[in-house]
């Protein structure tokens, strides 16, 4: 059965379950071990595969990450399908490891460890030996996948793009109302403790490095453009639904994203008087005052 949402054909959950089964078949882990890896009870995974339970957005995101696929592929059958979130440009995508499932798993393990270390310690404080220690392997193995330390930084940026894209597709593909979807997009961008705050840390380091290293600027621009386009298409859809004002969507997007960036930096650097709750309130007030039609 095919469903049409947001002008995009999306397949029913039966096809989604088939794709999850393919991920499980291609993965070297057993189904029980795979469930443990993604933090899901094996019984719940079985129920979701049988259709008596739906996968949650966070579960789909973890399945995609562990299985070296995208949420867009799980839900829509293709990495290229234009859906509720803009597809990353080719330069900003994580290229899948072309080896065996075990090699792909090792590559993902190294990338995830490097991403967390850079987010928590800072790029200039992370050495190849630190990544090797976190993965329980040798520095030579890290160099096999990532020849230099700078390669780790560029791939962690692409990894952040993938994480955000997967999360947005998983969270937003069932929200048909553009206003509610825009509010959810704002919520998904708040630097709340955990994954989102770590993503903000990586982005802030990329912003800094891009000012010093011109070779990073194209990748940074292409990565950021995906976020900009996701907001812009949501605003355009809200205008088509008659719930948003007719102001130029690009102008509204530029203002909203700049407000998110500025507030996010103040929150993550612990400026006195700034908080996630306060940031949420300011952003929702802006949406209601400047974007929603009276």
From TrEMBL:
SMART domains for this protein: HTH_XRE
Keywords attached to this entry: DNA-binding, Repressor, Transcription, Transcription regulation
Domain HTH tetR-type residues, every copy: 104-164
Domain HTH cro/C1-type positions: 29-74
Listed GO MF terms: DNA-binding transcription factor activity; transcription cis-regulatory region binding
DNA damage in keyword set: no
DNA-binding residues: 127-146
InterPro entries: BetI_C, Cro/C1-type_HTH, Homeodomain-like_sf, HTH-type_TetR-like_transc_reg, HTH_TetR, Lambda_DNA-bd_dom_sf, Tet_transcr_reg_TetR-rel_C_sf
PANTHER family: HTH-TYPE TRANSCRIPTIONAL REGULATOR RUTR, MYCOFACTOCIN BIOSYNTHESIS TRANSCRIPTIONAL REGULATOR MFTR-RELATED
Protein name listed in UniProt: Transcriptional regulator, TetR family
């Amino acid at each position: 059965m095919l469903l049409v949402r947001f002008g995009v054909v999306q397949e029913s959950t039966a096809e989604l379950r088939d794709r999850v089964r393919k991920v499980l078949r291609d993965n070297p882990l057993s189904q029980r071990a795979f469930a443990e890896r993604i933090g899901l009870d094996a019984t719940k995974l079985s129920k979701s595969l049988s259709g008596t339970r739906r996968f949650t957005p966070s579960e789909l995101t973890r399945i995609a990450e562990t299985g070296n696929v995208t949420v867009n592929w799980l839900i829509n059958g293709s990495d290229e399908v234009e859906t509720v979130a803009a597809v990353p440009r080719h330069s900003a995508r994580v290229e899948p490891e072309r080896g065996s499932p075990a090699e792909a798993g090792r590559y993902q393990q190294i990338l995830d460890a490097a991403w967390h270390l850079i987010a928590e310690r800072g790029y200039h404080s992370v050495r190849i030996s630190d990544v090797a220690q976190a993965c329980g392997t040798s520095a030579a193995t890290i160099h096999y996948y990532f020849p230099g330390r700078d390669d780790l930084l560029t791939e962690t940026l692409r990894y952040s793009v993938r994480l955000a894209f997967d999360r947005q597709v998983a969270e937003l593909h069932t929200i048909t109302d553009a206003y509610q979807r825009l509010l959810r997009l704002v919520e998904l961008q708040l630097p709340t403790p955990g994954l989102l705050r770590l993503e903000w840390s990586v982005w802030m380091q990329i912003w800094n490095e891009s000012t010093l290293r011109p070779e990073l600027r194209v990748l940074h621009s292409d990565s950021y453009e995906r976020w900009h386009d996701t907001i812009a298409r949501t605003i355009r859809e809200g205008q088509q639904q008659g719930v948003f004002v007719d102001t130029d969507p690009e102008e509204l997007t530029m203002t909203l994203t700049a407000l998110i960036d500025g507030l996010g930096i103040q929150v993550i650097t612990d400026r006195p008087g700034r908080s996630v709750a306060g940031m949420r309130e300011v952003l929702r007030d802006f949406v209601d005052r400047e974007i929603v039609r009276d």
